Amino acid sequence: MAVHETKTILTCALTGGGTPPEKNPALPVTPKEIADSAIEAATAGAAIVHIHVRDPETGRPSMKPELYKEVVDRIRSSSTDVALNLTCGPGARFVPGDPDGGDDLGTANVQSAEIRMRHVVENLPEICTLDCGSINFGDRLVLLNTPRQLARMADIATGLGVKAELEVFDTGHLRFAKTLITNGHITGRPLFQLCLGIPWGIEQTPESMMVMRDRLPDNADWSSFGISAGEFPMLAQAALLGGHVRVGMEDNIYLEKGVLTPGNGALVEKGVEILRTLGREPATAAEAREILELRKAG
Predict the structure, then answer these.
(1) Which one, of 129, 194, 177, 189, lies nearest residue 157 by Cα?
(2) What CATH architecture is 3-292?
(3) pLDDT (tens digit, 9 = 90+) per residue, 155-185?
C-alpha cells in the first residue's frame, strides 16, 4: 500500500500574526522561541511547520527577512528533519485609518509580490503559502490579494521549485486557485489548505469541509484546519475524509476548554493521539516529502 494511503501529514502552525502574546505566555515570539517551538513540534510528530515571524520587541507580525533567516537557520542547524512552510500572507494587510503603514493614506502593510516572496527566494523552503483571494479578516482588517499579484507570486514559487500551498478561505478562493492551475501558474500536483472558521470565510462545519473538498481537482493533495474550539473536531473530520491536518498556536491557544496550551508540542501530541484513535498514522517529514512530491529545501 502506498504511503499516501496509510499516512496523514500533520502541520504545526507555530505563531501566526493575529494572537496577542499576552493571551498565552507560551506563544513563541522571538526567532529563537519560534525555532525552538518548531523543533518541539517536530519531536512531537509534526512533519511540517508553518512559519510566521514577529517583531521580537512588540510581538506584532513582521516581514523582516532577517527574522525569517534566523528562524530557518536555527531549525536547519538542529537535528530535526522537519519540512518548512513559510507564509506569504503578510504584505496584504489593510486597515482603514490605521497609521502604522507609514504613509499619508493610513494603509497598513500592503506590499508587492516580490517583497512578499523575498524570504522564500532567500531561504528556499519546501512549501510557501498563497492566500487565494481577499477577505474581511475579523472586524477591522481586510486582506488584499489581487488575481494578478497572486499569479505573480505563484510564478515565483514555481520557478524556485517551492510547492505553493493554496490557502482557500471560501469557495470563491477555490475557484480562483483552480484558474492558477489551469493557466499554468501552478504546476505538478497541487496542494490545497482548506481554512475553516476564519471570520468572514466559510464556516468550520463538516458540511463546509465536504463542500470544499468535493470541488478540489481530482489530482489534488489537501489539508484542512479549524480554529479555536474547532481545531480538534476539524482535525478529526479532515482525517476521516482522507485529508491531511493542521494544529498550532496560530489557530488555537487552548489544549482543552479553559486550559491554555503549554506550547505547540502539546497541541501536536493531542493531534497525533486523535489521528491514531481514528486509525491514521502521522507521516514523518521524509514521508511528507514523498507524498507531496517536495524537493529537499535549501
Answers:
(1) 129
(2) Alpha-Beta Barrel (3.20)
(3) 999 999 999 999 999 999 999 999 999 999 9
